[in-house]
Amino acid sequence: GINAEYGAILSGPVNYLADVIGVPQDAVRLVSGLIFSQLFAIIHRLLVSRISSRTAKLSIHLLLGLFLGYFVWDSDFLHHCASASGFYILFLILPWGLAANINFLYQLGYLVVGYYFNNMVTDYSINWTTSQAIITLKMIGIGFDLNDQRRKDPQAKQIMPGLFEVLGYVFFMGTYLVGPLDDFERFRAFMKGDLYKEEESPNITIGLKRVAHGVFYLLISLVSTSIFNTDYLFSQKFLDLPVLLRVLYVAVWGHCGLYKYLGVWCIAESTCMYMGYTYKSNGDWNGLRNVATSAFHQSVRLQDVIDSWNINTSSWCAKHIYKRCRFLGNKSLSQLITMLFLATWHGLHLGYFVCFFQEFFYMFMEKGMYTNSLFNKATSLFPSVVNKAIAFVYTKVFLSFALVGFELYHYDRILYIYKAVYFICPVMAIAIISTNILFYEKQKPVKIE
Questions:
Q1: DSSP 439
Q2: Exposed/middle/buried for residue 243 (C-beta within 10 Å: 0-12, 13-18, 19+)
Q3: Model-level pTM?
Q4: pLDDT at position 447, please?
Q5: Are the beta carbons of 213 and 293 closer than 8 angstroms?
Q6: How far apart, in whole angstroms, are the C-alpha atoms of residue 166 and residue 105?
Q7: pLDDT, tens digit, 9 for 90 and up, residues 90-115
Q8: Using an 8 Å Cβ cutoff, are 253 and 238 in contact?
């Protein structure tokens, strides 16, 4: 845990604020770290970006990142150093093919052990594993990428990054605390000054707009979760509601729980925007966007949710987990393994595995719906606006039903809520899958536009 006595000059006001507003100190410290990141990004924009020396820029960013690590996580930031050092040593002493595989086990194992000792006794808590989750993907990704480069061209000159550069990548202030997830090549290009041309330098208003979005979503989270709160789910008043209203309450409750992530991600992304780190191409500064907010809110399929939510992590998993399972020759099995990896990456609580197994199960159901002749005929009976409204509600209900596990963690709590709504989503999914099999029709899928 965080030692409340360290750094009294900085930590004292933060702890005092946490006590006043009734929010856990760790949460306030993390948000304060994000605010510091914003200030550091402005310093970079005004001063550091003008420095021509790559080593000097890397040193400044590393020092700022280490300060953030110490301020937010106390001495626990050393765990993040261990991840970087472990990667470096493995690739220094072992053949890269073997190093990439051992590095995968080392990084994921380090995170799992961290979860075991920090998050298993209580529900999810903000601690060093919050940043470690992002660092785990970074270190696994750089290991696989280096090995892939060598396999594609064994004769090519490989430039093994130094430990100093790897630490700079881990502690890069724009992505260190909560992401967004970035790859090493982007970081290296940024430090070299090659990510974008000087005349394409971003307007600071881009970042200000994104941070405004983040604050807005955090306010929505604060207000909505106070109205649709978890305690109500376990009250007699909830059980006294008609079944349909219980289902709708769970749907709204689950959706409201996502706004805290949306807010934090937007704020973190804005820090990278100030520095131009999110450059994509031709004036597009959304290269690290983690949520396509419009698409997410308007989603009428679970696939729409997957495509628009936590985009960077999904892309990483597709590249480094799903595609590496091609040798199995079975897409469904590859998807299941990817879901198991994601569940483990999020934590050891049973609820994460319940959540991601349901995602796999419901996606299997949904893919079959669009080659179901009965479903296609049914949708042709209604105007598109009616179909879209039904699909919108279906998406929110099934999404939130899966999120029960993600938010409540424990078997007894999850089962209590599922019983209260009569396992409506799994029962419907089984029924729909049955009709998918009975009314399968090989044709061009009919999609709701």
A1: T
A2: exposed
A3: 0.91
A4: 54
A5: yes
A6: 18
A7: 999 999 999 999 999 999 999 999 99
A8: no
